[in-house]
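Support request from a user on the community tier.

User writes: "When I paste my structure tokens into the form, the page sometimes reloads and wipes my input. The last time it worked, I copied everything first. Here is what I submitted, just in case something in the input itself triggers the reload:"
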């Protein structure tokens, strides 16, 4: 279709009609050799031959709260000359995926899910230039043409022709392969040899690291600033890393999970505040000389987090939020913000705008955002991965198809 989205077909994605929610695991014995081939720059061999039989891949579908399944769907194919087909090397489960996992109404139609992945280009449309089969590429969590007026302004998330994986008929990223619309504008090529140990950090460039960077950047984190980060999830930890990278003088991390806040300290947090509510606000104020931090980064998205941010921020300061809001009302009126000249900024991060800036530091090991992954599963382990994150048994789960 001209807008790059797959035509919506009842029951699934890319023409898949739901047949079973409990398909057998085909195993991952071929995945390891395929990953190694991809890392050598070779084009992985597709299962079967499209001209003689309909091949399949596994993808993740959600049918309602807590109801995630891995099912087989037809192999993605080029629909437009601007498309690419990418075989996925690594994908992951995002904290924002936990909102539908916890709240989505039940349905007989599976919704594709997942928006973070990197992989190897397997097929290219005739109008795609600058990429080639066998390239390792990073897919930001929204696809875009990277040429419209919004994209040129660094707002690829607002692209006039773009969209998000798993919506409006587009495939989800928690799959073995994905059709990528506007491949030339969307995908970022990773040049040179790639050590497999770097894949986790490269994967964070699809979402959480650029999102943390955007949050810190919009908040004005930099030399001579004090920053408070609310949330010890993957985005919050990446926001700590980003604030340190931008030169923040002091970084206070509000979180109460010791394994996560320990990683936050490794990333650059100077202080950790496990308290919540009024007690947490008082502690942050105490650490910042009574005035509060110049910048507060809300990486959670709940009303309680926003209320905490507005309570601790210094007068004249900035609250930057990238946590997906789970509220419709909040303290944004006269007493909360207007009278105190507080700026509220942030929003959906244009990840594509920052990948090329952050990529060299990942490749040379100056930053290691991939440390946020503390569990790896194969495709059959995705439902268990969701449960682990929802139950706070895992910080962020990586998927290795």
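"...and here is what came back when it finally went through:"
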């Amino acid at each position: 279709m001209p807008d790059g989205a797959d035509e919506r077909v009842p029951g699934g994605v890319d023409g898949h009609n739901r047949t079973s929610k409990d398909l057998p695991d085909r195993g991952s014995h071929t995945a390891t050799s395929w990953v190694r081939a991809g890392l050598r720059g070779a084009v992985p061999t597709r299962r079967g031959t499209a001209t003689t039989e309909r091949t399949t891949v596994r993808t993740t579908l959600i049918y309602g709260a807590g109801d995630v399944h891995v099912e087989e769907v037809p192999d993605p194919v080029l629909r437009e000359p601007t498309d690419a087909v990418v075989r996925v090397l690594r994908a992951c489960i995002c904290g924002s995926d936990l909102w539908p996992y916890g709240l989505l109404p039940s349905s007989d139609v599976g919704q594709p899910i997942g928006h973070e992945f990197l992989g190897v280009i397997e097929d290219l449309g005739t109008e795609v230039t600058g990429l080639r089969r066998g390239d390792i590429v990073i897919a930001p969590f929204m696809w875009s043409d990277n040429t419209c007026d919004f994209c040129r302004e660094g707002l690829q998330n607002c692209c006039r022709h773009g969209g998000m994986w798993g919506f409006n008929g587009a495939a989800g990223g928690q799959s073995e392969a994905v059709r990528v619309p506007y491949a030339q504008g969307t995908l970022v090529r990773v040049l040179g040899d790639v050590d497999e140990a770097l894949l986790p950090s490269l994967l964070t460039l699809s979402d959480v690291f650029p999102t943390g960077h955007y949050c810190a950047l919009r908040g004005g984190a930099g030399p001579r600033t004090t920053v408070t980060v609310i949330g010890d999830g993957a985005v919050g930890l990446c926001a700590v890393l980003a604030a340190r990278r931008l030169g923040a003088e002091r970084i206070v991390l509000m979180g109460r999970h010791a394994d996560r806040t320990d990683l936050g300290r490794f990333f650059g947090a100077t202080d950790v505040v496990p308290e919540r509510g009024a007690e947490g606000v008082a502690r942050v104020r105490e650490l910042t000389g009574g005035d509060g931090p110049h910048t507060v980064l809300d990486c959670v998205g709940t009303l309680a987090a926003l209320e905490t941010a507005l309570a601790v921020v210094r007068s004249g300061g900035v609250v930057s939020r990238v946590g997906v809001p789970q509220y419709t009302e909040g303290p944004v009126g006269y007493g909360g913000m207007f009278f105190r000249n507080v700026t509220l900024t942030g929003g959906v991060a244009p990840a594509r705008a920052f990948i090329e800036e952050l990529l060299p530091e990942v490749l040379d090991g100056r930053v290691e955002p991939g440390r946020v992954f503390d569990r790896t599963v194969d495709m059959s382990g995705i439902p268990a991965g969701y449960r682990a994150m929802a139950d706070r048994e895992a910080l962020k789960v990586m998927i290795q198809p």
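Agent notes: The reload is a front-end session timeout and is unrelated to the input. The two ends are 28 Å apart (CA to CA). Confidence is low (pLDDT under 50) at residues 1-52. Escalated to web team.
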